[in-house]
Design brief:
Order of helices and strands: HHHHHHHHHHHEEH
Number of strands: 2
Oligomer: single chain
Shape: globular
Structural class: mainly alpha
Number of domains: 2
Length: 278
């Protein structure tokens, strides 16, 4: 089926991935040509169930999970989320179940009882490095799952659910890694990139004002930004995410006030933690 779909979109199979335990089947090359709605329908279903089946198969070994994470985060190939700009023309009643199914499959994979990301005590350096690489893979898969969830239409999932899970995933990742095997800068960069992509997706939602609310109902997003800024400050204020420097949070009925000038990360973090009145 994969070659036929590639042909339908005037693409080509990607030979560089053909030796990766058939995980190249998760990707369909994109094209600039206009694609018929019927073909988009087939593609959305195929790419979703490819992730579901790959998640089930990857549960057997840690190496399979690491490989799945590496493939899904490859910038040179096109998976389910890469196709979302085109899938946005499809009915939400079709895409919402597919996106939630992909989320469930990946989240379940990362939650299996035998998928423990915490390294056993007194591991040798090589084993410790392998365990920390696995922790990176699990974190990346969890964030990919949340990105699927963030693409759903309004009413399917609350923003608080997404931001809380993002915070927990990052906290678990940082807790489980060893600084001797993964440099702090590398771990910080991974979290910053994942958080930035999640917010980028959230900003495209029709209900972004409530999904990213900073009122009493949106305390989870405020906590997310606070946690995000703590990572950003590790690499200096020059790396402060635009979502944080574009406005200053103030305790005025739990709403945000756009700022005419960019704010330093420490002032934003201080306002978030201490609910400073403007």
């Amino acid at each position: 089926m994969h070659p036929r779909l590639c042909l339908l979109v005037n693409g080509s199979c990607e030979p560089c991935l053909r030796n990766s335990n058939k995980l190249y089947l998760l990707s369909i090359p994109m094209t600039s040509s206009i694609i018929d709605a019927v073909v988009l329908n087939l593609l959305s279903s195929y790419l979703t169930y490819a992730i579901v089946l790959a998640s089930r198969a990857a549960a057997s070994t840690r190496s399979s999970i690491q490989e799945l994470s590496m493939i899904l985060n490859s910038p040179s190939t096109h998976f389910l989320l890469d196709w979302m700009p085109l899938f946005s023309s499809l009915p939400t009643k079709q895409m919402d179940p597919l996106l939630t199914r992909a989320y469930t499959a990946l989240n379940k994979l990362c939650s299996f009882p035998n998928v423990s990301t915490k390294p056993p005590p007194k591991l040798k350096s090589v084993e410790e490095a392998s365990s920390n690489t696995f922790s990176e893979s699990v974190f990346s898969l969890r964030m990919y799952a949340l990105q699927c969830l963030a693409h759903t239409s309004p009413g399917i999932v609350e923003g608080n659910t997404v931001w809380d899970q993002a915070n927990r995933s990052a906290a678990l990742f940082i807790k489980n890694i060893s600084s001797t095997a993964i440099p702090e800068a590398q771990a910080t960069s991974l979290v910053l990139g994942a958080f930035a992509e999640l917010v980028r997706i959230a900003e495209t939602r029709q209900d972004k004002e409530t999904f990213m609310a900073v009122d009493e109902e949106g305390k989870s997003f405020i906590g997310f930004c606070d946690y995000w800024s703590s990572f950003a400050k590790r690499v200096g204020t020059n790396y402060i995410p635009s979502i944080i420097i574009s406005f200053t949070f103030c305790y005025v009925g739990w709403r945000y006030i756009p700022s005419a000038e960019n704010q330093l990360a420490h002032s934003v973090s201080f306002a978030l933690r201490n609910q400073v009145s403007c």
